[in-house]
Amino acid sequence: MSYDLVIIGGGPGGYNCAIRAGQLGLKTAIIESRGKLGGTCLNVGCIPSKALLHASEYFEAATKTFPSMGVKLSGVELDLPQMMKQKEDAVDGLTKGVEFLMRKNKVDYLKGFGTITGKGRVEVAGSDGAKQTLETRNIVIATGSEPTPLPGINIDEERVVSSTGALSLKQVPGKLIVVGAGVIGLELGSVWRRLGAEVTVVEFLDKITPTVDTEIATAFQKILKKQGVKFELGHKVTGVQESGAGLQVTIEPAKGGQARTLDADVVLVAIGRRPFTKGLGLDSIGIKTDARGFIPHDGHLKAGEGVYVLGDATTGAMLAHKAEEEGIAIAQMIAGQWGHVNYDVIPNVIYTYPEVATVGKTEEELKAAGIEYKVGKFQFMANSRARTNHETDGLVKVLEEVATKKVIGVHMVGVGVGEMIGEICVAMEFGASAEDIARTCHAHPTMAEAIREAAKGVDGWVMQS
Ligand code: FAD
Ligand code: NAI
């Protein structure tokens, strides 16, 4: 059997590449070893985490917010098995939907593990042990990533868990220690705090969410603290010991100093993810990974002759929509069309309450690069919809490059900002200035008016505060 492209890995990068290739009339196969399409994102990532974030947000609102809104409830209780079931229903529906999309676009879906055995050859080992070899003009590596382990700490996915275990705990832990104040730690920490856990986050660096603009990260941390999350910044976890029915977590200042222990029922290790390339057969085509295990590419997603790479397996943000963009670009390039990813406009959302949404350069990055910029800011406290909804935490910050008069970064923390960032991405793709946004009529009363006000702030004419 000879293909135009064989995609190894059925995550958002791989399956979107397959759909686009199918649309373009390319003979396409996709190989996936986990038994279900959708990759990390649909099975143990974006989707189940958002299902739990959404449901736990309702639970907390019912107990904490409804009474102040004049809605009296009694007998509110957590039904954790049902909360988990609705999460699994969401995952199930979506993974089956992806399988349907493969059929619709005439993509062959092979269940099994793919290994490259030479130029244009991929061997598939099925779960039943049967092997077959596919011949192809192009190979697309879309094998994704896995949690980075913490040396010396055994992840049993019951009491010491990665994100995968933390998405399926059977009961609410009394005390949850989260290692790493990144996206996973804060999203899943939020879920379990809302459901009743006492959450302490241990972070190696002196700030949470290190890649987020510092002003936004600081405001975000303050909000999380107010919600009851405890932080041990500038600390590392050096050991986890069993102690009766619980666990004892040893932490030390990152810069050295006295060790302390913290009690925990569950420890979530969320210190990043690493590319997954085990058993892929890269040697057979002379491809080497970089020092951190990523497969490098030439700037156009080519890792070698007739070999492309995308998503978490290669460099750049480890995000589903970044993988999707790359998948589309690869399919188009193989079909002889234009393929392009604008890495300057990849949004980033942390789906906590409130959310954090960012795109483009941070102030720290602009300063380090010596790029002259102007800033406009607006606090949600002064936005009429935020005040009406009693959701006033947070702010919007718009950064404009002086030389080009183009918006170069937007950073927000606030309720619903994850949906609002789309407006900014469109504006940035069209090369908008802050004035373009400021002179665009926004519906009133909406939270998005805060973006317009912050954009006005770039040229010094904020009107609502
Ligand atoms: P993956 O989704 O990892 O898919 C790779 C697939 O390849 C896997 O299914 C794997 O089984 C398969 N595979 C690997 N090797 C082989 C082989 N040799 N043969 C056959 N199959 C193979 N990103 C967001 O943008 N938004 C979010 O809200 C978000 N939330 C997340 C929450 C959590 C808890 C986690 C862990 C991640 C989250 N992410 C989120 C990140 C997102 O899941 C990843 O960036 C995305 O899934 C990467 O897509 P991918 O296609 O590169 O790889
Ligand atoms: P992360 O890179 O976001 O955060 C890891 C944190 O752990 C960092 O703050 C880092 O300084 C800290 N850390 C590293 N080693 C440590 C140690 N030994 N002790 C204490 N702290 C330590 O990684 P995370 O949260 O595991 O997420 C992995 C990836 O998944 C992210 O890169 C993100 O792109 C993706 N993701 C995206 C989501 C979204 O878009 N909403 C949601 C969840 C994950």
UniProtKB/TrEMBL annotation:
Keywords: Disulfide bond, FAD, Flavoprotein, NAD, Nucleotide-binding, Oxidoreductase, Redox-active center. The lineage of its organism: Bacteria, Pseudomonadati, Pseudomonadota, Alphaproteobacteria, Hyphomonadales. It comes from the Bacteria. GO terms for biological process: 2-oxoglutarate metabolic process. One of its GO terms (molecular function) is dihydrolipoyl dehydrogenase (NADH) activity. The active site is a redox-active disulfide bond. InterPro entries: Class-I_Pyr_Nuc-Dis_Oxidored, FAD/NAD-bd_sf, FAD/NAD-binding_dom, FAD/NAD-linked_Rdtase_dimer_sf, Lipoamide_DH, Pyr_nuc-diS_OxRdtase, Pyr_nucl-diS_OxRdtase_dimer, Pyr_OxRdtase_I_AS. Residues 346-455 form the Pyridine nucleotide-disulphide oxidoreductase dimerisation domain. NAD(+) binds at G180, A181, G182, V183, I184, G185, L186, E187, E203, G272. It catalyses: N(6)-[(R)-dihydrolipoyl]-L-lysyl-[protein] + NAD(+) = N(6)-[(R)-lipoyl]-L-lysyl-[protein] + NADH + H(+). This is Dihydrolipoyl dehydrogenase. PANTHER family: DIHYDROLIPOYL DEHYDROGENASE, MITOCHONDRIAL, DISULFIDE OXIDOREDUCTASE. Disulfide bonds join C41-C46. Belongs to the class-I pyridine nucleotide-disulfide oxidoreductase family. Its EC number is 1.8.1.4. Binds 1 FAD per subunit. It comes from Candidatus Viadribacter manganicus. Residues 3-327 form the FAD/NAD(P)-binding domain. FAD binds at K50, G114, T143, G144, S145, D312, M318, L319, A320, H321. Its cofactor is FAD. It holds the Pfam family Pyr_redox_2.
